[in-house]
Amino acid sequence: MAAAEYSDHARSGFADGASYDQYRPSFPEESVNTLLEAVRVSGVPGAHVVDLGAGTGKFTELLAQRHEDFRITAVEPHEGMRQVLEAKQLKNVHVENGVSNKIPVKDQSVDAVIVAQAFHWFANDESLREFHRVIKPHGCLGLIWNIEDYNAARSHAAATAWEAELQNLTWSFDDGSSRYRHEKWKEVFDKQLKSNPLSLVLAANPLFSLPLASHECKWIVWLSKDDLMKRYWTLSQIAVLQGEEKEKTRQTFLKALEKPDVEVNEKGEIALHGSTYSFWTSKIPSEPQSME
């Protein structure tokens, strides 16, 4: 993640970078290909991509594997997660300590900024202005999240009753920090469309084109009960639980897995449902650009 002063909840919730890297999923090929094409770097040799809030490098790895040989600046303020990323020694990846309002690259030097699994931590005007600074004229911003049904928005109907029960469990925790499921991250873009007196100046000078384009890729993954629990425990508000509250949450989790609609394969693995959501937009240059 990356923010001007990134959340204490993020700092503590992601303290175990190794577990996060082991149990959090990668991103579906369909979603990656769609997003990279949408932000106009697919097929562009040596394109400069900033992976902001790179974490342990779940998305960075996919960028580094691409045939385009991207020049990748991976920016991550959390020391523990950054250390995991640095240890991977990924091709063409330069790892930096940085935050969303102070990205350590030059003005208009980046073809695309991509934020995987993190934009909700720093969805504010200051961050958008910084993205606008570093992205080249007509360059793009891409956002992507893996969201299990148990971590989805209230408007999302879980595929099964047991996942709906876990979804309710997840929503029972409120530490005051906004996650993807709260859907508040969209508000920073919505403000550009308003025309009331308080937002007239911002609306008259939008930074990125709207509305955001989007793509959804639904998926199912099969996990052992133990791995499923460990994956659930990588959620930042769950990872910090201690003592009685941790045990109570564990028992609620296990009780949900007793529901009759839990699908189990011949290996004893459980079907977990979710979606990968991608969004993208292009920078609106501050001044008209010559087409010559």
Task: Report on the architecture of this protein.
With 292 residues, this protein is an alpha/beta fold. The chain is built from 12 helices and 7 strands. A 7-stranded mixed β-sheet has the order 3-2-1-4-5-7-6. Helix 2 (17-23) crosses helix 5 (79-87) and helix 7 packs antiparallel against helix 12 (243-256). The radius of gyration is 20 Å and the shape is globular.
Main pleated-sheet profile: 7 strands, mixed
The strand count comes to 7
Order of helices and strands: HHHEHEHEEHEHHHEHHHE
- Computed structural class: alpha/beta
The proportion of strand residues reads: 15-25%
What is the number of helical segments per DSSP (H or I, 4+ residues)?
Answer: 12
- Termini separation (Å)? 39 Å
Ranges with pLDDT <50 over ≥5 residues?
1-7, 9-15, 195-202
- Helix content bin: 25-40%
Overall mean confidence score, pLDDT: 90
Adjacency order of strands in the biggest sheet: 3-2-1-4-5-7-6
Topology:
Layout: H1 8-13, H2 17-23, H3 29-38, E1 48-52, H4 58-64, E2 71-75, H5 79-87, E3 93-96, E4 110-116, H6 125-134, E5 135-148, H7 161-171, H8 187-190, H9 200-204, E6 213-223, H10 225-232, H11 236-239, H12 243-256, E7 270-282
Parallel strand pairs: 1-2, 1-4, 2-3, 4-5
Antiparallel strand pairs: 5-7, 6-7
Helix pairs in contact: 2-5, 7-12
